[in-house]
């Protein structure tokens, strides 16, 4: 495997991180920014933005690419939805992203908790747009409907990788199930933007990447993110390749030509990176 390229090396901005961390710690909140070792943590915190992670710090699944620990889950905190709304207001966020650990131990996958979080943010912060990044809910469409009825502005569910890699790297998920979540979201409420993302560097081919784009477009998905897989630790799946910047640009060009309303493509792009910009641009195209 080639050495990690210079463009993947980012500086840690401790001056930007500490104030936001203080607010989150005071309210007992988690961010996926730290749990997933996001490379954009310093940049986003400098802008006083964060992606809140609800339902604990422990996941019920063991994906080969993810840094979030799997194990015994925590009891849901009934104060969490309101605390996230309070933090959103205090940090003066305009577009807030709420993600979750996968909770297969809960009957609805945590849908009601996510819905309550959306409602609390919109109640306390009237002008804030809300994006949620959800699990596949084990394909539970009734649970999905509960989330959508809370009226998030963006419903994000990541396909994560091309279909052929699921068995090895995402064994507890199903490619078709993830596509179904995106498809049903549009059927339930066509006015809510849908979004998905996938990583490169896990062993995919270009042909598989283009097939994934086509499959996602068939669900009428609006926004696509394409990123580089970065190995969290030696225990995780190895990186098969580091995609060059010009290739990310080419993937973006092709995806836009295929029909996506907004595409973010780059080595350090993550699901919630530039989420506000993606929402605004996709919304403008929707009304054209």
UniProtKB/TrEMBL annotation:
CDD domains documented for this protein: Radical_SAM
Compartments reported by the entry: Cytoplasm
Positions of [4Fe-4S] cluster 1 binding: 33, 38, 44, 272
Reported cofactor(s): [4Fe-4S] cluster
First-tier enzyme category under EC: transferase
Alphabetical list of InterPro entries matching this protein: Aldolase_TIM, Elp3/MiaA/NifB-like_rSAM, Lipoyl_synth, rSAM, rSAM_sf
Keyword Iron: yes
Binding site for [4Fe-4S] cluster 2: 59, 63, 66
Matching SMART domains: Elp3
Gene Ontology MF terms in the entry: 4 iron, 4 sulfur cluster binding; lipoate synthase activity; metal ion binding
Listed EC numbers: 2.8.1.8
Cofactor binding note of this UniProt entry: Binds 2 [4Fe-4S] clusters per subunit. One cluster is coordinated with 3 cysteines and an exchangeable S-adenosyl-L-methionine.
GO cellular component: cytoplasm
A Gene Ontology biological process term: protein lipoylation
Catalytic function, reaction form: [[Fe-S] cluster scaffold protein carrying a second [4Fe-4S](2+) cluster] + N(6)-octanoyl-L-lysyl-[protein] + 2 oxidized [2Fe-2S]-[ferredoxin] + 2 S-adenosyl-L-methionine + 4 H(+) = [[Fe-S] cluster scaffold protein] + N(6)-[(R)-dihydrolipoyl]-L-lysyl-[protein] + 4 Fe(3+) + 2 hydrogen sulfide + 2 5'-deoxyadenosine + 2 L-methionine + 2 reduced [2Fe-2S]-[ferredoxin]
UniProt keyword list: 4Fe-4S, Cytoplasm, Iron, Iron-sulfur, Metal-binding, S-adenosyl-L-methionine, Transferase
The protein's annotated pathway: Protein modification; protein lipoylation via endogenous pathway; protein N(6)-(lipoyl)lysine from octanoyl-[acyl-carrier-protein]: step 2/2
Ranges of residues in domain Radical SAM core: 45-261
Similarity comment: Belongs to the radical SAM superfamily. Lipoyl synthase family.
Name of this chain's protein: Lipoyl synthase
Gene (UniProt): lipA
């Amino acid at each position: 495997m080639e050495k990690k390229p210079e463009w993947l090396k980012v500086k840690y901005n401790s001056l930007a991180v500490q104030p936001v961390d203080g607010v989150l710690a005071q309210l007992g909140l988690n961010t996926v920014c730290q749990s997933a070792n996001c490379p954009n943590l310093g940049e986003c915190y400098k802008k006083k933005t964060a992606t809140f992670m609800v339902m604990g710090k422990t996941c019920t699944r063991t994906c080969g690419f993810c840094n979030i620990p799997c194990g015994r889950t925590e009891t849901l905190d009934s104060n969490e939805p309101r605390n996230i709304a309070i933090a959103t207001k205090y940090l003066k966020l305009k577009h807030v992203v709420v993600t979750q650990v996968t909770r297969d131990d809960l009957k609805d996958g945590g849908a009601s908790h996510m819905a309550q979080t959306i409602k609390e943010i919109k109640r306390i912060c009237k002008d804030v747009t809300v994006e949620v990044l959800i699990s596949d809910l084990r394909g539970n469409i009734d649970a999905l409907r509960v989330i959508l009825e809370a009226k998030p502005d963006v419903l994000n569910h990541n396909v994560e990788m091309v279909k052929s890699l699921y068995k090895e790297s995402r064994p507890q998920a199903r490619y078709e199930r993830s596509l179904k979540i995106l498809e049903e979201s549009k059927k339930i409420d066509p006015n809510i933007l849908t979004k998905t993302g996938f990583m490169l560097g896990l062993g995919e081919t270009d042909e598989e990447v283009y097939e994934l784009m086509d499959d996602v477009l068939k669900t009428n998905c609006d926004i696509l993110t394409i990123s580089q897989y970065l190995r969290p630790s030696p225990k995780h799946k190895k990186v098969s390749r580091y995609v060059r910047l010009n290739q990310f640009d080419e993937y973006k060009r092709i995806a836009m030509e295929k029909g996506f309303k907004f595409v973010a493509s780059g080595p350090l792009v993550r699901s919630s990176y530039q989420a506000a910009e993606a929402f605004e641009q996709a919304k403008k195209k929707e009304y054209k």
